[in-house]
DNA sequence: CCTCGGGTAAACATGT
DNA sequence: GACATGTTTACCCGAG
């Protein structure tokens, strides 16, 4: 992957003050993501509120998601054993389009995996027992399944976090107590967006963009 | 050509 | 202070 050219600090510093102004349109643009349905569900803050614990322990939505998975006739795990390197948990190949993991095999060990970060995160979370993971665990999962990242530039973690924060598919669940090392929240997949993710996963033709 | 999704870098805030 | 985590902004690129 080539260095993202044109992202030099110099360039960024070009517009010291005007940047803000110009940024406004950008902000609005961002705000127009799937924000519409968001008004009713203020993302993390909602989960982090008083009922957070209930939400978490309740896991009602997880049941929902289970149904979703069932409805979509995915594997027991609801996911393909996505990673090419994924050979654990039985070889029960889900009824997923083979395009997902068409022989990326060892290739993915050294080359960039054919999945977007959002999908990687999704897979990581879905493979966890509780369907919730702290970023650290997400890192681990990705590293574990895609050794490529072991040698990849450190920026990928930033990208993961960036995705978690920005992507509405993921919900942050504050840990009310027993903070593991005092840091890190749990991240879950918003059941509302799960179908989207699964669809993306199914499609994922990924002709290896290679940038 | 424009929009959008995705990727990357970086600044900044916060907590341990 | 260092580090991890989380948020936000900005920009680039490719696909549709």
From TrEMBL:
Domain of life: Eukaryota
UniProt entry keywords in alphabetical sequence: DNA-binding, Nucleus, Transcription, Transcription regulation
InterPro entries for the chain: Fork_head_dom (IPR001766), FOXN2/3-like (IPR047119), TF_fork_head_CS_1 (IPR018122), TF_fork_head_CS_2 (IPR030456), WH-like_DNA-bd_sf (IPR036388), WH_DNA-bd_sf (IPR036390)
Domain Fork-head: 112-199
GO cellular component terms, A-Z: nucleus
Gene3D superfamilies: Winged helix-like DNA-binding domain superfamily/Winged helix DNA-binding domain
Subcellular location per the Swiss-Prot or TrEMBL entry: Nucleus
GO MF entries: DNA-binding transcription factor activity; sequence-specific DNA binding
PROSITE patterns (UniProt xref): FORK_HEAD_1 (PS00657), FORK_HEAD_2 (PS00658), FORK_HEAD_3 (PS50039)
Residues in the DNA-binding region annotation: 112-199
Protein name: Forkhead box N2
Gene: Foxn2
């Amino acid at each position: 992957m080539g260095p993202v050219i044109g992202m030099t600090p110099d360039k960024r510093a070009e517009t010291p003050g005007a940047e803000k102004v110009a940024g406004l349109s950008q902000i609005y643009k961002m705000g127009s993501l799937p924000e519409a349905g968001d008004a009713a569900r203020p993302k993390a803050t909602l989960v982090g509120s008083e009922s957070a614990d209930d939400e978490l322990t309740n896991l009602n939505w997880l049941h929902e998601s289970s149904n979703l998975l069932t409805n979509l006739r995915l594997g027991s795990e609801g996911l393909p054993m996505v990673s090419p390197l994924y050979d654990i948990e039985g070889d029960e190949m889900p009824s997923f389009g083979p395009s997902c993991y068409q022989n990326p095999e060892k290739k993915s060990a050294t080359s960039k995996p054919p999945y977007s970060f959002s999908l990687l995160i999704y897979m990581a979370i879905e493979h966890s027992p509780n369907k919730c993971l702290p970023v650290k665990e997400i890192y681990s999962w990705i590293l574990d399944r895609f050794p490529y990242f072991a040698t990849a530039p450190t920026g990928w973690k930033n990208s993961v976090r960036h995705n978690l924060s920005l992507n509405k598919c993921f919900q942050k669940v504050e840990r009310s107590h027993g903070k593991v090392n005092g840091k890190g929240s749990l991240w879950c997949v918003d059941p509302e967006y799960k179908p989207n993710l699964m669809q993306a996963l199914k499609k994922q033709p990924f002709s290896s963009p290679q940038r």
